[in-house]
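Lab meeting minutes (informal)
Scribe: AK
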Amino acid sequence: MAEAQDGHYDSLSQSTDSLRIDPIYESFLCPLTKQVMRDPVTIESGVTFEREAILKWFNDCRSSGRRLVCPVSRKELGSTDLNPSIALRNTIDEWMNRNEVAKLDVARKSLTSESTESDILQALQYVAEICQRNRSSKHVVRKDGLISMIADLMKNGSTKVRQKALETLCVTAKDDDDNKIEISAGDNIRTVVKFLSHGQVQEKEQAVSLLYELSENTDLSEKIGSVPGAILILVGLSSSKIENLLIVDRAEKTLENLENCEKNVRQMAENGRLQPLLRLLLEGSPDTQLSMAAYLGELVLSNDIKVFVAETAGSTLVNIMKKGNKEAREAALKALNQISSYESSAKILIEVGILPPLITDLFTVGSNQLPMRLKEVSATILANVVASGARFESIPLDHNRQTLVSEDIVHNLLHLISNTGPAIECKLLQVFVGLTDSPTAVQNIVEAIKSSGAIVSLIQFVEAPQREVRMASIKLLNNISPFMGQELADAFRGNFSQLSSLVRVIADNNGISEEQAAAAGLVADLPMQDSVLTRRLLQDGAFATIISKVVRIRQGEIRGGRFVNPFLEGLVRIVSRITFVLDDDPDIIAVAREYNLTALFTDLLQMNGLDVVQIVSATALEKLSHQSKVLTRILPAPNPGFCFSIFPCLSQKSVATGVCRVHHGICSARESFCLLEEKAVEKLVACLDNNNEKVVEAALAALSTLLEDGVDIDQGVMVLCDADGINPILEILCENRNEALRQRAVWAVERILRIDEIAYEISGNQNVGTALVEAFRHGDYRTRQVAERALKHVDKLPNFSGIFSKMGAQ
């Protein structure tokens, strides 16, 4: 260290001559280093050297194998003994002290903005050197008021002066708490912090080093942290990939020092540095744990941080929630509420056992129960956890192995919904939404709702004034409607106002929301054949509104995000209700005509990619087409006249112009729902190529109405021929995708084969013959009968009916 100190002083001798009062004497200088000696020793030759320098000389001689000689006289030495030169050292110290006092006075005069840059730099250099050489000098520097003068130079216009001022302050602050306090006076710390974000690299290095020195004083930690942006900048520097290692290291160590102040820990957490907060949460006193948990609940955390917190402190927070006092439990609950809002972190909380205490908190009554505001937090956490999608049917809640989907637990949750305020109602409804989203849990929930008779209570919430309560209720009812359609229909018939409320939700014109999609799905799942509900919807004007929305969506006038497709599917299914109650009901038929449903569903067939829309549309067209044979207007037969009555051989079969070839009457898409008039046949044939078997089945069922009894089957076949529909039907038969499709295909093919020309052509098709044989062998009774008739058409089975009729004639 002596060599380093003397090095500083030697630079003083070269750069601060203008500050020297007493001249330097030759005897003060080491012959080897040419620097003022701090520990002079005399060797055997009588020459005095700096101890460290002569020891190095001796070591170099030994290591190189040279003779041991005096560096000055070159005389060989017989001994390496060193004799301290105490008198010379005292003389040097006295000289240095005289000069230091004088030089400090000169330096003070140079540390002003009026001085030249070189004078200021010389003065700063001297102050730094004197503080490094002698700790007592730091006291003198502070006493003489130099620290405030140096601090003012941080605002100097010269980059070199600012950098040197920071460096000098760092030296004066090291290991001296009084100097640190002096440096931190006024807005000096704020000035230092500015260098961290705006300074040049060298300034930034010196500034962060100075902050580190200041942060070593515990009392200054809060003051540093209170400077706006200080901790944020330090956190950024400590994790920077572009700053040099010195800056990163000093920033990290400064933050570590600042962690002794809780306010700083909170700021660090706000800026993404959560480790200090979590460490205090895990290892701190109960009061500290309470404080950290409370603050954790106030933070806005990124999803990655939520996972980190759940992994690090989830178990501790759950334990506080279970065993802490009311204040501690409140803090833990709020923190867990924050963490549980992300799926991955929620699953971690499930693993550390959050479910049992949550359920206990919700169900406990009496003196130990939580206040309602905390029960709301518990319900919110439970809703968050359930939304994670875990398999709750396999997670036990108590020693009886009950789970969230156990009947008793579900009954208790349903009871809570009916006996709390809107806030908790909403969260518990969201719990049920999450549980019924699971295909493995929904059936348990449905059975529990049925056994509790709670469906009437649940549908009341669709009229709730609070939008979140209403939306959660509608989403829940939508989830269970595929399993409880009849129960829901019965409940809605008991109070039509709730059905009307759903229609109002669907009719809302503010975009397309999740609530609207759920409401449409719920209404669509009600039993299609329920004419009472259909008439109620008609009375509420629902069909006019819904058809208008379908058309506008189809035309691109209404655009939506991720809910547009389920919303459209629900709307189309609702409109299709009309086609399920057409039989013998002139009023409903009039509605179908009014809205030209044949044209609407034919157009919707073209919505490729929306299989549900295509399935529903094809099914609706099938039901509409069934009505065509009774709705077509049959023209009266023409009068044959006198000649034709006498000579019938002269008569010919007349065909009236404009008569439907299949239905033999005047048809239209609007009035009689005729598929031919709307050109729906070609679009249905196109659907036979769909990959979804349900789409194919629905399209084939609609086309089959052209071949059913009561219409001109021959002409129906010809219509299919004109639309290139025969081969796709034969391919469906041969592919044998499923039993339902095979049954429909066999029926249609048998009707097609009644045309002799087609039967003759197909008789050579081995694949069709094989498919019919398979249907004849393995189909159900009805399919075997139809397949048998089809095989006879292509001569694969003998037709004994003709033989028997001839034998009877004989």
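Next up, CB showed the second protein from the same session:
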Amino acid sequence: MAITDFFAGEIATELLKQLFMISAKAWKYKSVAERLIDLIEDIQPTIKEIQYSGVELPPHRQAQIGMLSNTLEKGKKLTEKVLSARRWNVYRQLTLARKMEKLEKDISNFLKNQILTHILADVHLLRANSDVRFDRVDRSLEMMTEHLGSMKIGGGGMIREAMKIAEATMEIEMGNEEEKFGVGLEIGKRKVKKMMFSAERGLIGISGMGGVGKTTLARELERDVEVQCHFENKVLFLTVSQSPMLEELRAHIWAFVSGYEGVNPVPNWNLQYEGGVKTQKLVILDDVWTREALDCLTFNIPGCTTLVVSRSKLTEPKATYDVEVLREDEALSLFCLCAFGQKTIPPGFDKSMVEQVAGECKGLPLALKVTGASLKERPEMYWKGALQRLQKGEPADETHETRLLHQMEASLENLDPTTRECFLDLGAFPEDRKIPVDVLINMWIEIHDLEEAIAFATLVDLSHKNLLTLGKDPRLGSSYASYYDVFVTQHDVLRDLALHLSNKGKVNIRKRLLMPKREKALPKEWGRNIDEPYRAQIVSIHTEEMDEMGWSDFEMDFPKAEILILNFSSDKYVLPPFITKMSKLRVLVIINNGMSPAVLHDFSIFANLSYLRTLWLERVHVPELHNTTVPLKKLHKMSLILCKINNSFDQTGVDISNLFPKLADLTIDHCDDLVSLPSSICGMTSLNSLSITNCPRLSELPKNLSKLQALEILRLYACLELKALPVEICELPKLKYLDISQCVNLSCLPEEIGKLRTLEKIDMRECFFSDRLSSAVSLESLRHVICDKDVAFIWEEVEKAVPGLKIEAAEKCFSLDWLDE
């Protein structure tokens, strides 16, 4: 392709921009400008096709393109003069108008000879001839690869291995990529281009989980006409990969951005380069895996933009575009294109089954293409078997496993061992369900011996690597944040990967014993192996209603089980009798996904859980506490979510502090029948955090709260009937955080609030106080108050008296995340 091809395309685009400006601003030239716009818009598609054909034109055709390029260049200079001409200079205006008319005539004469049409015909002929030659080259390369299969390549890899990786990542060619990705691709291009063309963006990113279409989007941007024009056709696309040869890549990029080749060693380009780069340049780094590799390959040279494509979020959030999965209609079209060679389900084929198989891919382009291709020309019975395997989290066939799951597994290779184990733990939760962050963090604290802050950092790290989706919540990561009403989600293909890796090997020796989907009963495979103990540390069961008969064939022994997750959908549920054999159980999670709270039977087995540290009950009836004959002496954390309390705390003779002597964290959330707390709760001398939230009938707190000598966190938000805080709350010697937000009937804080010398933060959004707090000036540790704008005035004196105090007028934020579908 000749230089003139590029010049003609670029100049035509620039000239059009100038003409549009003239048409809008200079009325004397409006008509001739509009006629020129029509002429150039007519020829622009032909110029672009010639420009990007990749064909080297013969000299006489290059000369003809050169004539057009010269004419357009003169027109561009002329339009610049028109735009800069003074309105009062009538003579110059008249001269320029005549030159504009002559430009129109010159372009029209050029087009009358249909020179561009002849050139385009030559392009098609030359391209057809080159395709034949390339076919011969491809066949030669295949033969050569067989001979070189065992030879080493740079970086220590094997050519045969490299080809397997390429095959795994290679896209199934079915025609125009835009047909496959539809609207989603165009939206992505538009958003990334907006960041690209912004002057302050030197480093921008495309992020997303494996197989979501990041590289496809990057390639489309590389070929995009607007991008080519903006960067004056100076675009470099490099694939970095997991085992990059960084020195070679650095040298390649340096030669591109600086124009100096063969420089060794490459300068430290993180320093400001003084070479005076005059043109815009774009470097696209695809398949970047680590921040270290990115730091080695990025630079600070004026006029250069770097686009980073990675499975991890390696750039600033505002400069990162997260690629989303396809919409349902786009996904089905892409799947059909790969399975049937057309964008619709063929007549006579089972429409429902095709939609179910495509639905299992959850809009992930790679999964759609690989699954569709693996089922191409297969009979319907084969499809049914593939659907059943996919629903169990298993690969549809060997090809599906090799090309999809192995490709996705590459996302885990850079994880440290603990983070990888945390990712695999996500397979323990049902598909398409929100996972409470609190449950995850507690699991990781117990089974991986992590500190809470490190467990949270692991969660964020998995989110940055697009291995899970962390719900956007302003509280995340802040001091005293609660996580029981914050959730994470995970794409089903990533969950399938976790299941696939966890379910390898004989069922009795697996570290995780997981049910991929909800069943009426436990898997038969489990029942066939009950003669041997199960070594699983994590056991996850997902069923409907279970009674004594349902468990009778599964008398299993779990001597190493530390975590048990029971998911079910029913209004009554018999707990599995094998819990009594889980002597090391530390975390028990019971979640009812049904519409109404379930009655739990055989709750007395809890007496055997002497090592239990965390208990999560969701949407169940809390049993009568006197049935727990033996105290749970090691229980550290208990969460009751959407439960029916049934006056369990009000039974006479029941001392809660004796039942849970080590309890440090108690959460009661969305329990609408909770009216009051028993006074014995104040005997829990180890209680560090007490959260009574979204309990609309709670009207009062125990008056002896001051006995909670270890209490640091007290959350009471959205307790609508709570009218006053007991004055004893001011006697809590270690209280650091008080949350009374959305307690709309609360009219004031206790007058002696100033006694809370350790109090650091108060959240009182939507509390309508009017009285100033005279004693609050003594809150010497107070650092942060969140309130509505119209009550901020009550803190004015405190703000003056307490140095460093921040009064934040918060925006109203309502969450209905607890209304799980």
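CB comment: Confidence is low (pLDDT under 50) at residues 1-7, 128-180, 269-277, 816-821.
No objections, moving on.
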